[in-house]
Specification:
about 170 residues, mainly alpha
Length: about 170
């Protein structure tokens, strides 16, 4: 009987606890789709690792260049240094945010590849665990972004009013 108390609750199905496992419940079409998707997931994961690494290197570049930039003519002293450090820290945060989805995506693809070779339920479970982690991370990031948007809207209105009055 459906739960009438919470209309937003995810639907539930009974879980089969047959020995022989879930690998036997996959159709050939499902396995074919997983086989086709696995290299792409690993590729996207590797590209995410490269992107995170390059972004982290950019962060190190900004932060390490900040002491030298303050001695250049036309740079507004400590504010130029603080600005470069702030940009470097933002880049570092972006690198961390890019790393985790890349990791989950890569290992999802890798575990699928291992499953296809060994037909091991543990590998398939590991793959779906990484898939769940990927979407959980993206969901949390989406909620955080949705919470931050109103703050930026209010800040933009305040800045617009302040600059209009000045």
């Amino acid at each position: 009987m459906p739960d009438t108390q919470n209309p937003y609750k995810s639907p539930e199905a009974e879980i089969s606890s047959e020995e022989g496992g879930s690998a036997g419940n996959l159709t050939e079409t499902m396995v074919s789709y997983l086989k086709d998707a696995s290299p792409w997931m690993r590729f996207v994961g590797i590209m995410g690792f490269i992107g995170a690494g390059l972004t982290a290197m950019g962060a190190v570049g900004f932060i390490s260049a900040s002491p030298f930039i303050s001695n250049m003519p036309g740079v507004p002293g400590i504010w130029g240094v603080a600005g470069l450090i702030a940009v470097g820290l933002i880049y570092l945060g972006v690198a961390v945010l890019v790393f985790f989805p890349a990791r989950f995506t890569y290992f999802f693809g890798e575990k699928i590849r291992r499953f296809l070779r060994s037909n091991s339920e543990a590998e398939l479970e590991g793959a779906f665990k990484n898939n769940r982690s990927l979407w959980k991370f993206i969901g949390i990031l989406t909620v955080v972004n949705l919470a931050i948007i109103p703050v930026f809207i209010v800040a933009a209105i305040i800045v617009a009013v302040y600059t209009t009055l000045m």
